[in-house]
Every structure is written in C-alpha cells, then in structure tokens.
C-alpha cells in the first residue's frame, strides 16, 4: 500500500518513513472525535506518568530515556512547552493583577512613590520576549548541572532533565498564581522550586544528600544566570527611560 501522508510504499500497520497509520479512513466527524479522545487519554497517561516518574524514580527515567525508551515518557521539550503554554496563558490573563500586588510603591526620602505605571510598562516590554526568555531557564539549569559535575549526565542528558524539571516548576508557578492574587506568598514558590530540584536530583547522584545539594546549587546557578539576564534587561530599560 502507499502511505497517504508521504507516499512511501510499504506493508504493515505503520508507515516506516513517517509513522502514519496505514488505516486512515476518510475524514469524518466521528473519526475526528475518536482520535481526539484517544489522543487526550494517551496524552494524559503519558504526561502524568512522566510527572510521577520524575519524582519517584528520575534515575530510571534518565537511564531508560538515554538508552532509547523514548516513547515511554513524554518528550522533554513537549513536556516543558505544555506547561509553558499553561503558564503563559494564565500570565496573560492574570499578569497585570499579579504585578499590582508586587511592591510597586517605593519609599524614597519618606515619600511614597507609586511605580506601578513604570512596572507595568516594563512588564509590557518584557512580555514581548517572555516566550523566548523562558527557554533560558532549562538551558541555564543544564549549565548549572554540568558545572557541578553530575557524573551520570552528559550535557544532552542534563538538558533533558532540565527541560523536565523546569516544566514541573512552570506547573507550580501556574498554580501559585492563584493564591498570590489574594495573599502575599513571599518566597513560597522559590521554596517549592528548590524542593523540586532537591527531590529530583537527589536520586540522580550516588548519594541522596550530595545529589540534593548539587540539585539545589544547580538551581541557584540557573536562577542567577536567568535573573542576571532579566536584571540586565531591566537596568537597560530603566536607564533608557531616565
Ligand atoms: Zn508515510
């Protein structure tokens, strides 16, 4: 038979060239619905399984993924992109309200200065690049992981783990937006993020404690790189505005 997607001639259930099923029916509403439902369930099982594996046995995930069991887990970039999408959608809806609760009123010489307009204009400017800036988080985390000589990981493996872990942290960040609309949550999100680094990377090292500490320090290096870039950007923006 001939593949309807790429026109390769083959025998079997799946095209050896592009992977499309050989039994593709005419496009019907019923068929669309069935494929939507099955994708949804597949996606859910896949993501939930990967999410759990990252906490329960990240060392096995890393080992299996490295040795070719790629289909068993969600793709790290898709995993990250999925949670980034949720995060950015929520941020687009809630972002302005979130920033209003930040300390935008500053005390200068006993006078209170409202910086909210300035903060919002910085935010607007930053939002344009936000989608790209977020990709620096997993990349800088991978740099941090390599700097600490995680023996079990080469840089590609560090990147895979970093994309997974930053996906989890985006998920936490998304959830934390809701309480922070109403309460001063302070460092809660940072503490949770640090815990994620500690839990996941404690298993990747030979010793739990060494792994946890290395994980936390890698996270700090990553935040320092990322924060430095954002701070630099803010500084340039403020200097330009006078
Ligand atoms: Zn094909």
Keywords:
single chain; 242 residues; mainly alpha; two-stranded antiparallel sheet; 70% helix
Question: How would you characterize this protein structure?
Answer:
- The protein contains 8 helices and 2 strands; from the N terminus they run H-H-H-E-E-H-H-H-H-H.
- The chain is mostly helical and 242 residues long.
- It has helices spanning 29-56, 58-66, 76-100, 116-133, 136-147, 155-182, 188-202, 208-241; strands spanning 105-108, 111-114.
- The protein has a two-stranded antiparallel ribbon with strand order 1-2.
- The chain binds zinc ion.
- Low confidence ranges: none
CA-based shape: globular
Radius of gyration, taken over Cα atoms and rounded to an integer in Å: 22 Å
- First and last CA, distance: 68 Å
Structural class assignment: mainly alpha
How many individual β-strands? 2
Mean pLDDT: 84
The ligands bound in this entry are: zinc ion
- In which range does the helix fraction lie? 55-70%
Percent of sequence in beta strands: under 5%
Provide a count of the helices: 8
Q: Helices and strands in order, then pairings?
A:
Blueprint: H1 29-56, H2 58-66, H3 76-100, E1 105-108, E2 111-114, H4 116-133, H5 136-147, H6 155-182, H7 188-202, H8 208-241
Antiparallel strand pairs: 1-2
Helix pairs in contact: 1-2, 3-4, 3-6, 5-6, 5-8, 6-7, 7-8
The structure holds zinc ion (ZN).
